[in-house]
Amino acid sequence: MFRCMGQVPIDKARRSKTFLSRRWARSSMATKEDILEQIVEEYLVHKGYFVRHNLKFLPRRDHPDFVLNQDSNHSDIDVIGFHPTIEGDRKVVAVSCKSWQSGFNPAAEIRALEGDKIRRGRKAWQAFRELTNRKWSEGFLKTVREVTGLQDFTHVTAVARLVGDRSVWENYQPFLDAMDGNPVVIITFREMIAEIQEKLTTTLASTEVGRMLQMFRATKAGTDPDEKIATSGLDALFRVTARGRPTSRTDRR
Predict the structure, then answer these.
(1) CA-to-CA distance for 166 and 186, rounded, in angstroms?
(2) What is the DSSP string of 228-251?
(3) Which tens digit of pLDDT belongs to each residue from 145-189?
(4) What is the DSSP letter of 9?
């Protein structure tokens, strides 16, 4: 999805000073974070991006529509990726993660937004503040500029599962207007996993998620019948007594 291009000297642009001065990392997320965010990070790292997480944004207090009791609690950009060697709107990606187990239906979400409906216990627009409310859009755009030194970027909605046509979302003009004409795209958990796995080798991955995916792939590939027999030997470690409790060390002698 995010295509890498030729090398560009980092020290020749002001944006690189911003990039180098911030706490960017090839990999930094602890496993306590949302699993979808971890997969987004892993995906971007494999694409050559540096990443940051949970960057706060708010409407500005002097905005004519600012309401103190509604606009004082910040929202977050879940993940921002910065690529040091590519140009254009894929150089920076700002990712919003939606880990909804029921799936993400672009058409249904847009209908809820247009109808000012309640979704998942709150107003539908509140799940997409930066895409639906101008004062929040401005705060989002300001944060992206401050963090990256750039105003061209791609807004990405990362979802657990896509239900329906993504183009309905990606071509929705109010979203594109809210992002000042920058692209708006959707990517799924399955798509990211597939691309990460294509690039994994047997060399130990540098991240916990990468190592976990390596283990999944290795386990699926394991077809040695001797391995299955050896695995069954683990049962001896978990023998239980007639009362259903594990045996003691003495019992096993």
Answers:
(1) 7
(2) HHHHHGGGGGG-B-TTSSBPPHHH
(3) 999 999 999 999 999 999 999 999 999 999 999 999 999 999 999
(4) -
| CA angle (107 as vertex; 171, 182 as ends), nearest 5 | 25
Burial of 137 (0-12, 13-18, 19+ CB in 10 A): buried
Distances (CA, A) of 239 to 228, 232, 253: 18, 12, 12
Beta pairing partners, 122: 119
Q: 3-state DSSP call for residue 112?
A: helix
pLDDT at residue number 13: 39
How far apart CA 43 and CA 48 sit, in angstroms, is: 9
Residue 210: alpha-carbon gap to chain centroid: 14
Residue 27 carries which DSSP code?
Answer: S
Edge-to-edge strand ranges of the sheet holding 184-188: 50-57, 75-82, 92-98, 154-159, 184-188
Q: List the Cα angle 97/99/105 in 5-degree steps.
A: 90
Report d(CA 45, CA 38) in Å as an integer.
Answer: 10
Average confidence score pLDDT of the chain? 80
Report the first-to-last Cα separation within the chain, whole angstroms.
58
- Buried b / exposed e over 151-187, threshold 16 CB at 10 Å, is ebbbbbbbbbebeeebeebbebeebbebbeebbbbbb
Q: What is the pLDDT of residues 193-214, one digit of tens each?
A: 999 988 888 888 878 888 888 8
Read off the pTM: 0.76
Sign of CA dihedral 27, 31, 32, 36: positive
